[in-house]
Specification:
By secondary structure, this protein is of the alpha/beta class. 24% of the residues lie in helices and 29% in strands. It contains 6 helices and 12 strands. It has helices at residues 4-13, 47-55, 69-76, 88-96, 134-143, 203-212; strands at 21-25, 31-33, 60-63, 81-85, 101-104, 115-120, 145-156, 181-188, 191-192, 196-199, 215-222, 227-234. The strands form 2 sheets. The protein has a 7-stranded mixed β-sheet with strand order 5-4-3-6-7-12-11, sandwiched between helices. Strands 1, 2, 8, 9 and 10 form a 5-stranded antiparallel β-sheet that branches. Helix 1 runs parallel beside helix 4 (88-96). It is globular, with a radius of gyration of 18 Å.
């Protein structure tokens, strides 16, 4: 399968930046991911990401590490951090940028170790794909936690993308599918990847899923636009 994301990161890393990644989703027609944003430093990260990095403790697994921004920051702070990404190109970029410990794998295929902090930023919980897969996804994450470990994740309630009526209610399609389930396709330099599912979660839905899977769910902070940072802990 072509590594669209990884190719774009490798190009940017090599100084061959000429265009951004185009994205097509089931919600809107076309958008883009600016490549410079995928190489941001701590100072230019959104507040919720900065807050999550401040809350990290112990041995950290950076899930969906991309170009390694979070891993690099934590490593520079003295953390034992592992960058994990399914994209071979992303992991190559992490190595080039100096991340000491990297793993090229999907999170569901990874069972290598246990950690004090699992970090899922840039809507990392989206890797669950669909709401019906969320329970097994959370169970897998729990199995990667050391005693007293934590999961830090951010997500967004995308209810705002649907039309509102005069009473403030939202017009959500009644098709039996949770409104936060989105299908994405990426395109870079004329090459299109395969469509993939992605999950945006409102906090209450996340909280209910956590309760059903023996996890405490704490709302740490809310962003400016329906986004939030949550901390998940095993039920004692």
């Amino acid at each position: 399968m072509e590594d669209i994301f990884g190719k774009a990161l490798l190009d940017y890393q090599a100084g061959k930046y000429s265009e951004d990644i185009k994205t097509y989703s089931s919600l809107d027609e076309e958008d883009c991911i600016p490549l410079p944003y995928l190489f941001r430093d701590y100072k230019t990260m959104p507040y919720l990401e900065q807050k999550a990095l401040e809350l990290c403790k112990g041995k950290v697994l950076d899930i969906g590490s991309g170009a390694g921004n979070h891993s690099i920051h934590l490593q520079n702070k003295g953390f034992d951090v592992t960058a994990l990404d399914a994209s071979p190109g992303a992991i190559e970029v992490c190595k080039i940028r100096g991340v000491d410990c990297t793993v090229q794998s999907t999170i569901l295929d990874y069972t290598g170790a246990q950690f004090d902090t699992l970090l899922l930023l840039m809507n990392g919980i989206g890797l669950a794909g669909k709401l019906q897969s969320l329970g097994s996804f959370l169970k897998h994450l729990s199995a990667l936690l050391r005693p007293n470990g934590q999961i830090l994740l951010d997500s967004s309630d995308i209810i705002y993308m649907f039309e509102q009526d005069d009473d403030g209610g939202y017009w959500i399609p009644d098709n039996g599918v949770y409104y936060g389930e989105v299908t994405f396709t990426m395109e870079y330099k004329g090459a299109k990847g395969r469509p993939f599912p992605w999950l945006y979660l409102d906090f209450n839905t996340l909280q209910n899923a956590c309760l059903a899977n023996n996890l405490q769910c704490e709302l740490v902070s809310e962003g400016n636009h329906y986004d939030y940072l949550a901390k998940l802990l095993p039920q004692q």
